[in-house]
Amino acid sequence: MVRAPLPDADGVVGTPRAEVVRDSVSPAGVRLTTVEVTLHRFVLAELNTHRAFSRNSASSRAIPVQRQLDTVLHDPAVPVEFGANQRGMQAGPPLTGEERERAEAGWLAARDAAVAAARDLLDLGVHKQVANRLLEPFLWQTVIVTATDWDGFWQQRCSPLAQPEIRAAAEAMRAAFAASTPVELAVGDWHTPYVRAEDGDLDVETRKRVSAARCARVSYLTHDGRRDLAADEQLYERLVTAEPPHWSPLEHVATPADGDGPVRGNLRGWRQLRHVVELDRAPVDA
């Protein structure tokens, strides 16, 4: 079996990667950064424990099974290392040489078994929300993360005590964060991830809706690889009119707080689109 892991931005294969997709700073000096990270799916839960983050990720319920099969066959997520078994949460020294090769072969054999089972379910007509679950341990996961406070995450997940896969992702995120320079925004300006210059001169309300939709999709493009503003608008409407609404993608879109009243949510010094829309839709007491 040939391991074909995901290349990162530097051309190094087999490691998580991260890039800043929007970086802003408010008049009060509070930096708001949105990072897109691709990491091992099996450590996603460790990213999701950080309550300071707004986050969305590509859903196994939305991606066709055949596309996931192609991904897991050509770009399988393989552990960064196979640490030796010992007591406690941290592994011992990583296996090397023939032992490492045997461990990796075992991992990929499990991948092949999962692929065969997922294909069987696909042939039976089982929905992707079930069939794709079998493939998740061997998949990369792309997540968009927006936050104002990162230090706790760096301290915990860049630590030598962290599992190597989440540590590699956190270090990639920290490097992207350090290399980025935030853009100054005034009160009334909006932090809009995934809205780009090639989208043209969009008015602010359109930019907010398009940004939220693309954050939900975790991509500038549609699932079939197109830039489609009409599809973005339609997705936004589905998000906010669903019962219950899907609010989380609107958390990445934010404007500097103007100091008039308390700020809701997890972004210090910023007012999130989610709470603006929720307030607008709240019933008015008679």
Automatic annotation (TrEMBL):
GO terms for biological process: dTMP biosynthetic process; methylation. GO terms for molecular function: flavin adenine dinucleotide binding; thymidylate synthase (FAD) activity. InterPro entries: Thymidylate_synthase_ThyX, Thymidylate_synthase_ThyX_sf. Keywords: FAD, Flavoprotein, Methyltransferase, Nucleotide biosynthesis, Transferase. It holds the Pfam family Thy1. The keyword Methyltransferase applies. Gene3D superfamilies: 3.30.1360.170. This is Thymidylate synthase complementing protein. It comes from Egicoccus halophilus.
